[in-house]
């Protein structure tokens, strides 16, 4: 979960906490080198803050496209902790196959802001499944994290936790068909997965609130990340960055560009006292001069119950499939 955004969520969360409080951060990634890199970065940030309270670091290797790995993550957390206070669902992946450069040029020429807010030129592969025979993006971005939350619920209840789902601006209802919730036939699986996140949040937050677990939906606007840059060379990367600044300058509130500013809304909701509107999507926004603020959006809840029913049924199926599974994939650091 420690992408550019994940790292900045950690920075901001530590900055907002009482400096005297002892904190434990559990960094998650699919790989050990990334865990080490992230812990080093957080440690050096904490040193600069000179906080008197201790920060302890732990890690969890989890791949949400592998249900045994998700289950191991649960065992690990359950074994070591009595309570969890914050849980950020930040991990996401797409199944990209490059960029349609002709389409990209056309969209940039027609509407700059739209071209770097809702790009329609990223080519996504269709029908990609995981080894668990689930839609890959569905499992990585939605079902895997949901299943982990379902398993660690007692820890979240004990910690009266804040659960924060990272959605996106690109989660329009048109990207998801309720007849294809795993998005096997879709060529907009990334966007569809974010629509599923929106609906799943709306379908579940009230029930969680009864047990003092507060769940929020946020979107980080647009910022620079690894997922952006893999298909770009130096020239196109800086071209994209330049378009981001133009978009901000001509009025887009969503071009945060920096991961730190994108992490504003996730940390804002995590610190919200006495929440009133959990049905809204809280967005990280910036004005023309790059000054940050929070901007909310309404979410269309059509289909939320259907999605929840589908996912609950799948959860029961996986509870059954995994009932005799005990694993320990932890490698000493
Ligand atoms: N960048 C943007 O402009 C933008 C806009 C809107 C929303 N978002 C959302 O913001 C969040 C962070 O985005 P980002 O751009 O910073 O992401 P990123 O750099 O692409 O990183 C994605 C993160 O997800 C983790 N991840 C991916 N697949 C995973 C899997 N199968 N199991 C476990 N972890 C997995 C990765 O972990 P490891 O690689 O370390 O294993 C990595 O930490 C995502 O939810 C994204 O959809 C981003």
From TrEMBL:
PANTHER family on file: 3-KETO-STEROID REDUCTASE ERG27 (PTHR43647:SF1), DEHYDROGENASE (PTHR43647)
Protein name (database record): 3beta-hydroxysteroid 3-dehydrogenase
Enzyme class, UniProt record, top EC level: oxidoreductase
GO cellular component labels: endoplasmic reticulum membrane; lipid droplet; mitochondrial outer membrane
Coiled-coil features, chain-numbered ranges: none
Organism listed in the record: Torulaspora delbrueckii (Yeast)
Molecular functions per Gene Ontology: 3-beta-hydroxysteroid 3-dehydrogenase (NADP+) activity
E.C. code: 1.1.1.270
UniProt entry keywords in alphabetical sequence: Lipid biosynthesis, Lipid metabolism, NADP, Oxidoreductase, Steroid biosynthesis
One GO BP annotation of this record: ergosterol biosynthetic process
Family annotation (Gene3D superfamilies): NAD(P)-binding Rossmann-like Domain (3.40.50.720)
Membrane-spanning intervals of the chain: none
Name of the gene: TDEL0F04160
Family: Belongs to the short-chain dehydrogenases/reductases (SDR) family. ERG27 subfamily.
Lineage: Eukaryota, Fungi, Dikarya, Ascomycota, Saccharomycotina
Associated pathway: Steroid biosynthesis; zymosterol biosynthesis; zymosterol from lanosterol: step 5/6
């Amino acid at each position: 979960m420690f992408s550019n955004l994940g790292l900045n969520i950690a920075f901001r969360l530590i900055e907002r906490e009482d400096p005297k409080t002892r904190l434990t951060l559990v960094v998650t990634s699919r790989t050990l080198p990334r865990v080490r890199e992230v812990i080093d970065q957080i440690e050096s940030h904490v040193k600069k803050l000179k906080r008197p309270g201790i920060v302890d670091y732990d890690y969890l290797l989890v791949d949400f496209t592998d249900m045994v790995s998700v289950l191991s993550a649960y065992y690990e957390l359950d074994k070591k902790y009595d309570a969890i206070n914050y849980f950020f669902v930040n991990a996401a992946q797409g199944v990209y196959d490059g960029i349609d450069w002709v389409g990209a040029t056309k969209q940039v020429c027609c509407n700059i802001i739209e071209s770097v807010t809702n790009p329609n030129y990223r080519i996504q592969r269709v029908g990609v499944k995981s080894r668990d025979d689930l839609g890959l993006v569905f499992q990585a971005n939605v079902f895997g994290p949901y299943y982990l939350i379902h398993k660690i619920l007692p820890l979240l209840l004990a910690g009266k936790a804040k659960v924060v789902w990272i959605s996106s601006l690109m989660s329009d209802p048109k990207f998801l068909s309720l007849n294809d919730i795993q998005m096997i036939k879709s060529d907009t699986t990334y966007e569809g997965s974010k629509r599923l996140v929106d609906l799943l949040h709306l379908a579940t937050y009230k029930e969680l609130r009864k047990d003092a677990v507060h769940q929020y939906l946020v979107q980080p606007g647009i910022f620079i990340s690894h997922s952006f840059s893999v298909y770009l060379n130096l020239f196109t990367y800086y071209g994209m960055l330049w378009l981001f600044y133009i978009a901000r300058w001509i009025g887009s509130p969503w071009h945060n560009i920096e991961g730190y500013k994108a992490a504003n809304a996730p940390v804002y909701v995590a610190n919200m006292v006495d929440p009133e509107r959990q049905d809204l999507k809280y967005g990280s926004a910036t004005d023309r001069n790059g000054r940050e603020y929070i901007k909310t959006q309404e979410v269309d809840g059509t289909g939320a119950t259907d999605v929840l029913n589908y996912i609950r049924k799948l959860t029961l199926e996986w509870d059954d499939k995994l009932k005799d599974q005990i694993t320990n994939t932890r490698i000493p650091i």
